[in-house]
Amino acid sequence: MEHLSGPLNLCHVLTKSIIINRTHMLVHAIALSALIYYRASFFFKESNLRDTATTLVWFIIFLAELGLSFLWLLSQAFRWRPVRRTAFPERLPEDEKLPPIDVFVCTADPEKEPTVDVMNTVVSAMALNYPPEKLHVYLSDDGGSPLTLHGTREAHNFARWWLPFCKRYGIKTRCPKAYFREEEDGEDSDMSSDNEFDSEKKKIKVVRGNASDEVGQAHQEPMPQLIYVSREKQRQKGPHLEKQPSHHHHFKAGALNVLLRVSGVISNSPYILVLDCDMYCNDPSSARQAMCFHLDPRLSRSLMLVQFPQRFHNISENDIYDGKIRTYFWTCFYGMDGLKGPVLSGTCFYIKRESLYRKPTQEGSDLMDLKKLFGHSNEFIKYLWQKEKPSKNTIAGDSAALRKETQLLASCGYENGTKWGQEVGFMYYSVVEDYFTSFTLHCKGWTSVFYNPPKPQFLGTTTANLNDMLIQGTRWFSGLSQVGISRFCPLIYGSLRMPILQSMCYAEPALFPFYCLPICCFATVPQICLVNGISIFPEVSSPYIMLFAFIFLSSLCKHLYEVVASGFSVQTFLNEQRIWMIKSTTSYVYGTMDAVMTQIGMRRASFLPTNKVDDDEQSKRYEMGIFDFQTSIMFLAPMVTLVILNMTSFIGGVARVLTLGGCNKLFLQIALSFFVLLMSYPVIEAMVLRTDKGRIPGSVTILSTFLSSVLLLLCSSFLM
User: N or C, where is the chain less crowded by C-beta within 10 Å?
Assistant: First the structure.
């Protein structure tokens, strides 16, 4: 759809970044090839093979270097052809010609996901700058909470006041909580006096507390539909209801598929916006901006989704836990957009309903075949071929019949014997349903678009403490690893169905958790060898030392360049390096173990929502840039054990070269231990210097000292 005024969107190839990236790839690849030659040549000298222990150590280090080199190679696909996009929503057709949109919001636990925040997200979605009669908001409450249901009614009542207020005064921040927090008094109003605006604003704040009492006085203007959906439950458990234990509910993917079916007989909009319950609409124009891509005839035929970046309102200036996830949203997604498009990131995306039905459904298809795919609801199947909202003359106009049909579509057993989660809808194979769903869609030939406008379109809540970050990371990496070690491994399954660079982009996160193997190796083997005086790196006098130094510095400098080019500071670079090392020895390890155990049937996949409730003390430490180590010993023990091992090896190594000499041979191992300790300063500080609640408990330090001593003694006895 192109008007006389110009196209709806433009794609800009980032030529400068391409030149820098590809030049670095070439030089770094040559250096890695030389390193591999250096390591491999060791095993072809008979004199080197006489010492079995030394040979084994070199072999382990060689495998670790090969692993890191392979993962580096996969990551370069993101950097091959980065692009940026521009949208022109002012060039869209008039409102009457815009397609309807359904909004899906999912919540699961009112204790971890506060109802007031969920309702703010719902109201912000209802307040999108889009024709209200073409907007339908669905809330999935997997907790079955009466509090959430009551909050939904209150949100709908409040929206009757809030939406006209935003429209009349041109309010841009349409999440009520965010608006009143920012105190944007009069900023967006140029149509009335300050007194009138202040009066209306005060009236709205009254309404906030008594929405149900005041609704009769509300402005009777067209409103988007708001539909509350709770999947079939069986019995009471605590403050809310429990899902039927005999049916697997498939976590968030199952909830989204229920909304997909229920909305199919109510509104059946061709496009769907999916939001996490804490991810509110920060700018009301996102729907129109997304339509600039979905309605573009150059893209629309194969375009499945428009992905906006996830941004967060609770990020501290220091961001010690890398909550902004800069690597993906400021580097990787631009690179994938230059290929076949970015991965679906779980929220903040507008997806084409048709793409979730997998196969083009044409009227006249065999009804029984369709029922095998979509289930036995004739009403749902009937609307598969319709692009418009179901007519009032059909079931949509009969409230009793509609309620009965939607209860059927939301029932636990509806999907039995169907292809929901396998061929249609959001995929069930992995707990990272977003990644796996977009992977299968890209394999089918669909494409996607990443759009990052200057103003954040959505703002959510990120993890602001170490415990939540590591739990969330373990869940993500378990799901990703599960795909990586399955028959759906992107390098095998994907490379046969999509361009090789796109399959590499999918393979990198699927295999990323396996970083734990080479990183744990480099955090232990060189250090143990240092204590025992065994050299595994080139001597200072060898020309090969420059090769190792170049590869190390090349990686760090490229990372630093990407951070700075994204508009962030050197501190962000240090934080990302530190968090990568922490995750490599914790979340990556447990996520990979969980995936392997799930794959061989030793356990079932599990899902716990991330806690969205703030702890005042933890929040204060986070804002001050101080790590909070109030987490499980399961996470603390390996982290602290490796730090103590590196402290021991560094002190022992320095003492060794001062008394016995050998600095020429052991210099790089001493430097490596020092680098690990430098990056681990927050851990050392929490072990030794801190006395607050966020410190590392003394019992953990004692246990970790014991574990590191046992590891060092056992390995040293083998090397002697």
Answer: C
